[in-house]
Amino acid sequence: MRLHEIQSIEILAGYDNTFAFIADPENLPRWAEAFAAVQENRARLRTPRGETEIALEVEHDVRSGIVDWRMTFADGSVAFANSRLTRGSDGRLVYAFVLHAPPLPLEEIEGALREQSHTLARELVRLKALVEHRDGSR
Length: 138
Fold this sequence. Notes:
Blueprint: E1 4-11, H1 15-23, H2 28-31, E2 35-39, E3 42-47, E4 50-61, E5 66-73, E6 78-87, E7 93-100, H3 106-134
Helix pairs in contact: 1-3
C-alpha cells in the first residue's frame, strides 16, 4: 500500500516570485482546493466531513527551495505536505510536491490518497497558471 505520492510540474516564471507565492500560506486557498481560508498559523480546511479548523505551520528556505506544511487537527492528528522548487534546464522551474497519506484508519488510506492525488494534479496546473500569469519577467 502506497503511503505517499510525488508529482511535479514545470513552471515558466522567475524563481524568487514563484517561491514567495508558494511559501506564503495565505495563497493556499488560491490553488489548493482543500484550503477554504488561511490566517496566520490557522487554516480552515474543506474535508469530506465538512469544514474543520487546523493549526498550520509552514517551514521554508528560499536557498534550498523547500516549502513544508504541518497541519494539526483538533483531535491531535497531524498531516504533512512537503515540496521543493528547483531550477531546471532552459530557465524553467520544477516544482515537486510530496503528498502523504492523510491521517486516517489504514483501510481508508488507499482510496483517500488516490483521490487526493487526482486533486493534486489539478492544483499544480492551477498553481502554474497563477504564478506564470503573475510573473511579468517571462
